[in-house]
Design brief:
The complex is a heterodimer of chains A (about 300) and B (about 220). With about 300 residues, chain A is of the alpha+beta class. Chain A is about 75% helix and about 10% strand. In chain B, the strands form 2 sheets. Chain B has a 6-stranded mixed beta sheet, sandwiched between helices. In chain B, strands 2-1-4-5 form a 4-stranded antiparallel beta sheet, with helices on one face. Classes of the chains: A alpha+beta (about 300), B alpha/beta (about 220).
Chain lengths: ~300, ~220
């Protein structure tokens, strides 16, 4: 496809064209920067929203309340049955004494002895069950409820379903947002390349008449598109990296309860993907504006 | 036989019938003038030679290969066996004389080390030695057309197509350009030249094909005109 000996020539042609249409190139790169910046922000928002949702989801647990009349052996037997239920990941026993102690701790600041006030411990023995997949909590809870000796299960019915609904919409909206931005960027590159091609249509016509292959004509424009995409991406990533790290620093002190994702690996992957996205958008934009002019 | 037209008809999408049942053969080494009033079909005929247009009906063979059945990817190879000279020269204004020629050689995949020597050679052939570094805007019309011719022959084509090459030039300069083309023809390159200039044709003593309303009106030697 591309002969190596021609690469220098193609690259030089691309740079010449970029500098010849300086104003337009600058405008395109700036707009690309904004597009990719938004794209990056959208991705970071999605990642963080996803992370936040995952955290909420992983906090979901099923509490199985046991009959007070059960013997210790029966209580232990139920643990085995819960563990054998499909979709269960972990089971933790919380005795009634422990439950009361926990409750007491919540009132620790006040000088208030629950046991004395209540006379006896009214709390039941419970199992805290974690499902393998938070999405299956409802079914798992239902199966556990059917075990003899379990008189009630609780997993935040209603709230869990709503959480999943919100989480789904967050994903859909952010993907939609990213698609729109990508299309916008492609359109911009396409417009710039179209103008650049149009300015050189006589040269292209001549090249084709002389016997240039389509690819010989295309390469400089592709390189031009890729360079604009890359330049936009690199500037955007610079801004994004600076912005995000200062955001993370501020969040960690001011809004410490909102978890922000700050893994070096994830961020490096994100930035590399944005660079690739810039190049790809450049290629796509160039491709759609070029073919019409090659039909000589 | 280098070029064969068999019952070629061309109807453009807007309904204009540019060529109507044209059959014609061109031998290797021939020099042919293509004459006729504007709209007679000269441009269409020429565009078919390098396959910018293909016939609506009929067949065209160039070096025994059908350009009608030719794949899009084979077109560059066809065109590399031809050179085209234009009325308006079509030189790249931002490139020097030498760069314009080198560019054409580059486009068709000439090895980098061969481009320089070949460029110098054709510049010498068309008599522009010393003007290598001039830009087209600094040259006279005749000189610009010499650059156009140098570019067209740089790749050693079998067929040189000249579309009104002297249309923008005065009579004396036109005559000089004709001498250059005859010279190229003598060295073996087949030439098809579309022109309005009767005076140039009459003195040449070459084959003259006259088109009118898309048909071949006459195909004679100039001396019979």
């Amino acid at each position: 496809m591309m002969k190596i000996k021609n690469f220098g020539y193609f690259f030089k042609e691309a740079l010449t064209s970029l500098s010849r249409n300086r104003v337009l190139s600058f405008a395109t790169i700036s707009t690309m920067t904004i597009c990719i910046l938004f794209l990056g922000v959208a991705v970071l928002m999605t990642v963080n929203a996803g992370n936040f949702m995952n955290q909420l989801e992983s906090d979901i647990q099923i509490i199985a309340y046991l009959d007070n009349s059960l013997t210790e052996a029966q209580v232990a037997g139920i643990k085995g049955k819960i563990e054998q239920t499909d979709g269960v990941e972990a089971v933790v026993f919380v005795s009634k004494a422990e439950a009361l102690q926990r409750m007491q701790q919540k009132f620790a600041e006040r000088d208030y002895d629950l046991e004395k006030t209540l006379g006896k411990n009214p709390l039941p023995n419970t199992y805290e069950v974690k499902a393998q997949n938070p999405q299956e909590v409802a079914q798992v809870a239902q199966s556990i409820k059917e075990i003899a000796g379990v008189y009630k299960v609780n997993y935040g019915q209603g709230i869990v379903e709503r959480l999943f609904e919100v989480s789904k919409w967050v994903k859909i909206i952010s993907i939609g947002f990213m698609v729109i931005l990508a299309l916008g960027a492609i359109f911009l590159i396409a417009t710039t390349i179209r103008l650049s091609v149009f300015a050189r249509r006589k040269e292209i016509y001549l090249m084709k008449l002389i016997g240039a292959t389509d690819w010989f004509v295309r390469w400089p424009f592709f390189i031009e598109g890729i360079l604009m995409g890359l330049a936009g991406a690199v500037i955007a990533i610079g801004l994004l990296a600076a912005g995000y790290s200062s955001l993370v620093n501020n969040m960690q002190t001011a809004l410490f309860f909102i978890p922000v994702v700050y893994q070096q690996n994830m961020l490096i992957n994100l930035y590399l993907s944005l660079v690739a996205a810039g190049a790809l958008l450049g290629v796509a934009g160039t491709y759609i504006s070029l073919n019409r002019f090659l039909d000589v | 036989m280098l070029v064969q037209f068999y019952n070629v008809t061309k109807v453009y999408r807007n309904g204009v019938k540019a060529l109507n049942d044209v059959s014609l053969k061109i031998d290797r080494g021939e020099f042919i003038f293509l004459m006729g009033p504007s709209g007679a079909g000269k441009s269409t005929f020429i565009k078919m030679l390098f396959r910018e247009e293909i016939p609506t009906q009929g067949q065209i063979f160039i070096s025994s290969r059908s350009i009608v059945r030719m794949k899009r990817s084979e077109v560059p190879q066809l065109r590399r066996s031809m050179g085209v000279v234009f009325q308006d020269f079509k030189l790249l204004e931002n490139k020097t004389v030498a760069e314009n020629i080198a560019f054409a050689l580059k486009v068709v995949g000439t090895r980098n080390k061969d481009i320089g020597p070949r460029t110098a050679e054709v510049i010498q052939m068309v008599g522009l030695k010393g003007k290598e570094k001039s830009f087209p805007g600094q040259l006279s019309g005749g000189e610009q057309q010499r650059v156009g011719i140098a570019r067209a022959i740089a790749n050693r084509p079998l067929l040189l197509i000249a579309d009104e090459p002297s249309g923008n030039l005065d009579m004396d300069t036109a005559q000089e350009i004709m001498e250059l083309l005859y010279d190229i023809n003598r060295k073996g390159t087949t030439i098809v030249m579309a022109t309005h200039a009767r005076e140039l044709v009459r003195s040449a003593g070459k084959r003259v094909v006259t088109l009118e309303a898309g048909r071949v009106l006459s195909d004679v030697c100039a001396l019979e005109l």
